[in-house]
Amino acid sequence: GEMVIAIDGPSGSGKSSTSRMVATQLGLAHLDTGSMYRALACAVSHAGIDPQDEPDKVIDLAGSADIEVDTRPGHDTLIIDEVDVTEEIRDPRTSARVSAVATIPQVRVLLVERMRDIVEQNDRRIVVEGRDITTVVCPDAQVRVLLVADPAVRMARRARELGEGVDHNQIHDQIVRRDRDDATVSQFETPAPGVTLIDSTSLGLDEVVARVMALAEQ
Ligand code: CDP
Question: What ipTM was reported for this prediction?
Answer without folding.
Answer: 0.93
